Automatic annotation (TrEMBL), chains A, B:
Residues the record lists as binding substrate: S238, Q260, H263, H330, D363, E417, H422
Source organism of this protein record: Aurantiacibacter atlanticus
Pfam families: Histidinol_dh (PF00815)
Manner of cofactor binding, per the entry note: Binds 1 zinc ion per subunit.
Protein name: Histidinol dehydrogenase
Enzyme Commission no: 1.1.1.23
GO MF annotations in UniProt: histidinol dehydrogenase activity; NAD binding; zinc ion binding
Similarity comment: family membership: Belongs to the histidinol dehydrogenase family.
Source superkingdom: Bacteria
This protein's record includes keyword NAD: yes
Pathway the protein contributes to: Amino-acid biosynthesis; L-histidine biosynthesis; L-histidine from 5-phospho-alpha-D-ribose 1-diphosphate: step 9/9
Function of the molecule: Catalyzes the sequential NAD-dependent oxidations of L-histidinol to L-histidinaldehyde and then to L-histidine.
Gene this protein is translated from: hisD
């Protein structure tokens, strides 16, 4: 963990290092992934069989049950849940759906003063693939956050790819799939699964958009396949920036900081406060909580290597600029007047206002998407939304009079650009 | 040029080959670009100097004028334009601005039934880089189409990168830059220019989003840097699909087909009609026009290698499904009732309705963006818009009562996901 004070002589150098700290995939991963994708293009099913056996110790045989999990299994997994878990999943699903329904875009269709008809029509993609990691990061909430926006967009075919190491299936993920009504689930993982979804194989029909979290290989495969399919975003380890005065409860903030640290050793938790002593109280509280949680090892590694407590002189005037340079995935404003600071922040994935809004409510039940830009991408990227599963077709309609009004300007520009056929296509109609 | 009939025995095989025809960059380009970007990360200015000398024969010296074109030069270039060119540029700029102003997204901010405050705030990115190719594809219209949406989004810093081979500057591009009020223009091109904009160099401050067309190296550099910055889209050669009955004027359609063919030898023009004889008339008209235009060589190569005339039995029932498989950048519906066919088309970049709407009006003056998804990407991607220069921050605010209502479900889900610090961050606040 790093302690910084904005007045430190080498503050700028140290803070810049934190800003530029790229906790992401390296060239080796990129090279491996290129090889895997090349193989997937050449022999999809065979490569899937080989790699799934080698990496997941799961045999994709002639028995379809080794390739797919069917809807009945999902329903059964859901039936087995404790009633309060069912209710919590349903509350989450309902609230996520409600929030995302407000994201549906409006079509446009109008005639302007020159009687040119102009517009834009939004439609869902035909098919979306959702990746769900196996092992540590197999989160049912993640399936809800990816599947529900696709459903709200109106996507007809929703496909899940998830590895089942040693044949083991995560029942919670199946139960969440049932809640989302997903019927096509493939037992494949890694870069090869992303390749299968993008290119298709003899067995698997390709999709148009791939979303969902994954390890470095999955993230790199999505990055390399961007353009072959649409993807949600290049995702890195998660991050939280807590901005707090000294009136917050240190125990609360300690839990908030650890809630990101426990995700991954590469996660990053940063506290900005205007009181050094308060910073120490949070650090102490964090140590106490850390000793009690079973994600201790991951959280400790993350906090030790990437945690930061940064003391400033004045929160309102200094914190927003620092927050913008970090452009963090999650920003908590644990102050009396969060609005005043929020108004000055330009770059953040999602902002949690006030002392009673722990980031974790956003992970599960608040409604907005928990798939958010990491690694400073909030400078230019947004959280997952209904729009990621839709595309817009613009349209134009002119009659002869409208073409006579605006066409000559088009022909003039085509001519100065040296494109005679463009010009001809207008002029031949105005003869 | 290929002639196809939907009734041909091997139609499906041939059409599939057309659909899968990837006229795009290969592995060699990808490898070269990785090398260039690696060098740009290590020594930006030196690499720019070396490559600009080698490829553009232009020396980036200690004289800033060799690096930048200033606003006065742009104004002067604009002053030199013929009055009708000035007017055409201004008409285009005004109409593009009007259309894009309708794309500004709405912020959200509301409280739901559980008194949870939820919302989303849209903001422009801080800086956008617009690439403008040198040589054949240096189009002032392209600068308008990239810069105006960024301006409408509210982007403060707009940067243009454009190569000036042998020091030669394209005055039309400068004039368009003046119309858009662009003040920062760098005389660099290729993958190295994209690297400079994304990573920054000693001389050039990095940007957040890079848009604009370019050759295979530029396109591949943008693809590889996606995630480091936002990009508009992976762009391939342009395409037009004309769907027409036999009542259109063959001369009109010939010009429309050639207007894409003249862009690039890799461009593709396809006519779908329900009358084989009409198809031949269009082919003949195309031959006549081809002989007259100075873009003959490019247009001829494109038409010979990639042109298609496809005859179907019934336009209304058969053309939309074929159009969806092609998911073309531009689709012209030259029929009496274009609306009926448009209603059945799901995948297209932009649609031109009726016989008096040549695609070229969309390239220049109609208003919608001419930067559109190519290479079948209309299945999942949209044309360039104001949203490409903005990003959305979601926000959440709970008070104690709201946290008491929805918090326990969040804690329950965190616990089943094995994330105790997430659960603790809720529970510690509800003690």
């Amino acid at each position: 963990m790093q302690r910084l004070h904005i007045g430190d002589e080498d503050f700028e150098r140290k803070f810049t290092r934190i800003v530029n700290d790229r906790r992401e995939s390296d060239e080796t991963v990129a090279h491996d992934v290129r090889e895997i994708l090349r193989k997937m293009r050449q022999s999809g099913d065979d490569t899937l069989r080989d790699m799934t056996m080698r990496l997941d110790k799961h045999a994709l045989s002639d028995d379809p049950a080794t390739w797919r999990i069917d809807a009945d299994q999902c329903r059964a997994a859901h039936d087995e849940l404790a009633p309060e878990t069912k209710e919590a999943l349903q509350l989450a699903a309902d609230r996520i759906r409600d929030y995302h329904e407000g994201q549906r875009p409006q079509d446009r269709d109008y005639r302007d003063a020159q009687n040119v008809r102009l517009g834009a029509k939004w439609l869902p993609v035909d098919a979306a693939g959702l990746y769900v990691p196996g092992g540590r990061a197999a989160y049912p909430s993640s399936l809800l956050m990816n599947a529900i926006p696709a459903r709200v967009a109106g996507v007809e075919r929703l496909v899940v790819a998830t590895p089942t190491p040693r044949g083991e299936i995560n029942d919670l993920v199946l139960a969440a799939a049932h809640v989302c009504g997903i019927e096509e689930i493939w037992r494949i993982g890694g870069a090869q699964a992303i390749g299968a979804l993008a290119y298709g194989t003899e067995t698997i029909t390709p999709v148009d958009v791939i979303t969902g979290p994954g390890n470095a290989w999955v993230a790199e495969a999505k990055r390399q396949l961007y353009g072959v399919v649409g993807i949600d975003m290049v995702a890195g380890p998660s991050e939280i920036l807590v901005i707090s005065d000294n009136k917050s409860n240190p125990d609360w903030l300690a839990a908030d900081l650890l809630s990101q640290a426990e995700h991954d050793p590469a996660s990053q938790s940063i506290l900005i406060t205007d009181d050094a002593q308060f910073g120490e109280m949070v650090e102490d509280a964090l140590g106490v909580l850390l000793a009690q949680i079973k994600t201790q090892r991951t959280a400790h590694e993350s906090w030790e290597n990437h945690g930061v407590i940064l003391v400033v002189d004045d929160l309102a005037t200094q914190a927003p600029a620092l927050a913008d340079r970090l452009a963090a995935e999650h920003v908590e404003l644990a102050v009396d007047d969060p609005e005043a600071i929020f108004a000055k922040i330009r770059h953040a994935g999602s902002v949690f206002l006030g002392r009673h809004t722990p980031e974790a409510v956003g992970d599960y039940v608040a409604g907005p998407n928990h798939v958010l830009p990491t690694g400073r991408r909030a400078r230019f990227a947004s959280g997952l939304s209904v729009l990621d599963f839709m595309k817009r077709t613009s349209f134009i309609e002119l009659d002869e009079a409208a073409l006579r009004t605006i066409g000559p300007a088009a022909a003039a520009l085509a001519e100065i650009e040296g494109l005679p056929a463009h010009a001809a296509s207008v002029k031949v109609r105005l003869k």
